[in-house]
Specification:
The structure is a homodimer.
Chain A: E1 12-23, E2 26-33, E3 43-44, E4 47-49, H1 56-68, E5 83-90, E6 101-109, E7 125-129, H2 130-134, H3 148-165, H4 179-190, H5 196-205, E8 210-217, E9 225-230
Parallel strand pairs in A: 1-6
Antiparallel strand pairs in A: 1-2, 1-4, 2-3, 2-7, 5-6, 8-9
Chain A binds a DNA duplex through helix 5.
DNA sequence: GAAATAGTGTCTCTGAGACATTATATA
DNA sequence: TATATAATGTCTCAGAGACACTATTTC
C-alpha cells in the first residue's frame, strides 16, 4: 500500500443537514431552494463545503447556525439546544454531475422555532412536512435535489428509532415542556396515536428521564399541566415501544 | 452559496475497516502492521484510498477482499457471507499528519476464518482481541495508529448494540451453527454469561430467526445439537436483553 | 461411572396495553 | 353547562430471569 499524496484522486467534501422539527403535529424538515444549476429551483437539504482547517462536526454546526441561527450548545441562557449527530456519508461517484463529491450528512433535532421562516444567507428556506417529501407519490415540484431524498429518509428513520431508546425526543421540545407536549412529539414523529395514560406512566416512572421544574402551563388548554425539563438520563431502558409491531 | 470547483479545498478520502470476528471465545479485530511512516511498525486498521470511479461501499468491499478474501455476497456456494455496513466518518483536520484525509469507516462482521492468518497483500495481518486494543491500560506496542482506537471502539459499540435487536450475531457464525454456538457469540461480544436455557427459549421461540437445517453436530462436545441457519427475519422483536442493566 | 453440552419445563415478577375515573382549566 | 387536557389507578397478559430436570454424547 504505497501512500503518496499524488496517488489519491481529489475529492470535494461537503456536509448536508437533515434538520427536523415538529410543527403543527407534523414532522418537518428544513429545505432550501437551489439558486443555481444543477437542480436549479428545486428544493434541497441545506449544506456546504467543509473548509480546509475545519472538523466535520464543526462544519455542520456552522452551516446550521448560518441557516437557522440554532446553536448546538447551551449559551448560558435557557434556550433549548438543538441535538446534532453524524448520520451517514454518501459518496456515489455520480451523485453530483459536476465532480466527485462526498457528503457527510448530519442529523439535527430542533425545537419548533419562534421565527416561522429561518433566516440566514440561504435564499428561500422553509419547513416542509417530511410526508410530502417522502411519500409514495411525491409531486415533481417537491422532489429533492441530488440524493437528498435518500439522505432525508435515512435521517427520519434514525430519528424514529432513536427516540425509542433515548431521551432525544425532548430535543424537539422547548426547554420546559409538559408530558402531553412530549407525547405529541412521539405521535408526530412516529405517525401514531399513543395512549396518554400509559405514556404518562412510562415517562414519569423512568428515573432521571424528566425533572419537574415546578410550574404549570395551560398553553395546550384543559387542566394545567406540570412543566418538566429533560433529565440527565440519555438512555431509556426499557425502551418506549413503537406500536404497530 | 457560490459553488465553484476551484473553491473547495482538496481532500483525500479513504475507507477504514473494523473487521470483527469471534475466536476462542473472544471478540477480535483484524489489524495490519504499518510498513511506513507515520506510525511505522504500529498496528492499524486495514483500509485504503477510494478510487476515482468507485463507490464508498465498493471500496470497502474491495479492501476487505484484498485483506481477507472475504466476500460480502453469497457466491452461490454455502459459504457464509460477511456482513458489511457503514459505521461513521472521521475527518479531524489533523488526524493524518501529512494531509487532509477524511476516512469513511465500515464495520464488517465475519465468521471465524479457516486460515489462521488472513492472506492478501497486507504485510503482517492478524486477529487481535479487542480487549487488548481498547482496555484501560493498553501497552504501547498494541496502540493503534491514527485515530483507529476510536474508530474500533465505535465499531465494537455498534456491533454490541446491533446484535440486541437484529439477527446479525449469525454473521459471526458459519453458515450452519447450533444454538450454543450462537450463544457463545453473544457472550463473547458482550463479555457476559447468558443462561443457556433462557437463550434457547428466546432464539427458538422467535419466528423466522432460526431455520432448522436438519442435521446435528457434536463439535462442541456433549449431546448432539441441532443445526440451524439464519432465518429471513432481520429484526429481533422484542430484542435480546443485554444483562447488567 | 463422571463431565460436558442440549433441550424442556415451571415459577415469579416486571412492565406494556387496555381500559375507568377524577381533577382543573376554558368556552 | 360542555369540552378539553391532566393525572392516577386497575386489570390482564406477554415475556425475561431464575431456577430444576432430563437427554445424549465423550472420556
Amino acid at each position: 500500500m504505497p501512500y503518496d499524496p499524488s496517488d489519491f484522486p481529489p475529492f470535494a467534501v461537503t456536509v448536508d443537514l437533515v434538520v427536523l422539527t415538529v410543527r403543527r403535529h407534523a414532522l418537518c424538515a428544513l429545505t432550501v431552494r437551489r439558486g443555481e444549476e444543477p437542480y436549479q429551483g428545486q428544493w434541497a437539504l441545506p449544506g456546504g463545503f467543509v473548509r480546509a482547517e475545519e472538523d466535520l462536526a464543526t462544519a455542520a454546526a456552522r452551516e446550521l447556525a448560518e441557516e437557522t441561527g440554532l446553536h448546538t450548545q447551551e449559551s448560558g441562557d435557557s434556550h433549548a439546544a438543538a441535538h446534532l449527530e453524524q448520520l451517514a456519508t454518501y459518496g456515489d461517484p455520480h451523485r453530483d454531475p459536476r465532480m466527485r463529491v462526498v457528503s457527510v450528512a448530519y442529523l439535527v433535532l430542533a425545537p419548533d422555532l419562534p421565527a416561522p421562516t429561518p433566516g440566514g444567507d440561504a435564499g428561500g428556506a422553509r419547513w416542509t412536512p417530511v410526508a410530502r417529501l417522502l411519500g409514495d407519490a411525491v409531486e415533481a415540484a417537491e422532489r429533492l435535489a441530488f440524493d437528498h431524498a435518500r439522505i432525508l429518509a435515512d435521517g427520519v428513520e434514525r430519528a424514529r428509532s432513536k427516540i425509542e431508546y433515548s431521551s432525544l425526543a425532548a430535543a424537539f421540545c422547548p426547554a420546559e415542556f409538559t408530558v402531553g407536549e412530549l407525547r405529541r412529539v412521539y405521535e408526530a414523529v412516529w405517525g401514531v396515536a399513543l395512549d396518554p395514560r400509559n405514556f404518562h406512566r412510562k415517562v414519569t416512572g423512568t428515573p432521571g428521564f424528566l425533572v419537574p421544574v415546578g410550574g404549570t402551563t395551560t398553553r395546550q388548554g384543559g387542566r394545567p399541566a406540570q412543566l418538566f425539563r429533560a433529565g440527565g438520563a440519555s438512555a431509556l431502558n426499557p425502551p418506549m415501544l413503537r406500536p404497530e409491531v
